[in-house]
Amino acid sequence: MNFNIDSEKRVAEIEGELTFTDHSSFKQLVSTLFEGNVSPIVLDLSKLEFIDSAGLGMLLLVRDEVNKSAKKLILRGPRGQVKRMFAVTKFETLFAVEE
Amino acid sequence: MATSTTDGQVSSWDGKSEQSLRDALRPPTERCVEQPLLADGDVVPILDGDAENLSLVMTTNAAYRTPVVKVFVGAMADRTDLSEELRERVYTAAQEALMNAVMHGNLKIDASLRDSMQNLMIVHETIERMLTSQEYSALAIRVEASWSATSLNVTVSDSGKGFVQHSPSIQEDSEKASGRGLGILEAMCDGFELDDGGRTAKMRFKR
């Protein structure tokens, strides 16, 4: 998994695959996102090609962190396998998901 | 480099990178074994001689540090036609099975511990510590695939002690950060079962 953060708009673009081996890089992403007091936090998933159940779990952990700080989280642009995993796991009912 | 044997084309993998795995699985390889495991004849899988097949035996360390399922499914697609839809289902299901094999089978880590960002890092540090130990890092994981005109089978086996099948529905666990793996496996496969006391995940797909 790779990520790029637009520091002004607070949009994090996640690329590649988000899987059970990405704990450390994902934590780094979240820490960077929470440095400022900006809401909503947007995770742009349009370049994320693959996600497994551990990756889905990590997105839920971000949601929990966001809820603690009264911020808002938006998942933007899931496509392909990621979008289908959201459907299979009913993830779209747990997040604000933008096309 | 692939080596010809009477049992089919066997290659060895150095366990170091995605690219070296891609090279080791290039046709005409039928069986690929990571180098540290080559000396152990027991780990070389015995496959159905009548079916077209591909197998990979690797250490837990390599399975954790390399996108093995992505490369393995790509190698399958080099050998047999896979529709985009089928390729995605096989990749998604086999990834879940491999994660189970690494995390629960060989490393014996409880996925439910990843219930907060702080605990996620504790789990990460635990995995890294365990993988410095030969006792865990060298444990074998096998991925095997066979296919015909009408079906495709993939199995993932670990070297752990097995576990009792627990198959929570996706709805029941919808708010938790873990517990979706088996539900995803069942959704992606046309047939799924755990065998050998939970050590082997068998996935079947129609084509």
Provide a brief overview of the structure.
Chain A has helices at 23-33, 53-68, 80-88, and strands at 2-6, 11-18, 41-51, 73-76, 96-98.
Number of helices of chain B: 7
Our Rg estimate of chain A from Cα atoms comes to 12 Å
Can you give the mean pLDDT of chain B? 86
Give Rg of chain B in angstroms. Answer: 17 Å
Order of helices and strands of chain A: EEHEHEHE
State the end-to-end distance of chain A: 21 Å
Oligomer: heterodimer
Please report the distance between the alpha carbons of the first and last residues of chain B: 31 Å
The number of E-state strands of chain A comes to 5
Q: What is the H/E order of chain B?
A: EEHEEHHHHHEEHEE
Largest sheet of chain A: 5 strands, mixed
The rough form of chain A would be described as globular
**In one word, what is the shape of chain B?**
globular
Indicate the percent of residues in helices of chain B.
Answer: 25-40%
Strand content of chain B: 15-25%
For the largest beta-sheet of chain B, the strand count, sense and barrel status come to: 8 strands, mixed
Structural class determined from secondary elements of chain A: alpha/beta
Tell me which protein chains meet in the greatest interface and how many residues each side has.
A-B, 30 and 35 residues
- pLDDT below 50 for ≥5 consecutive residues: which ranges of chain B? 1-6, 166-172
Would you write up a description of this structure?
- The complex is a heterodimer of chains A (99) and B (207).
- Chain A contains 3 helices and 5 strands; from the N terminus they run E-E-H-E-H-E-H-E.
- With 99 residues, chain A is of the alpha/beta class.
- In chain A, a hairpin with a 4-residue loop joins strand 1 and strand 2 (11-18).
- The mean pLDDT of chain A is 89.
- By secondary structure, chain B is an alpha+beta fold.
- Chain B has an 8-stranded mixed beta sheet with strand order 1-2-3-4-5-6-8-7.
- In chain B, a hairpin with a 4-residue loop joins strand 7 and strand 8 (200-206).
- Chain B is globular and about 45 Å long.
- The two termini of chain B are 31 Å apart.
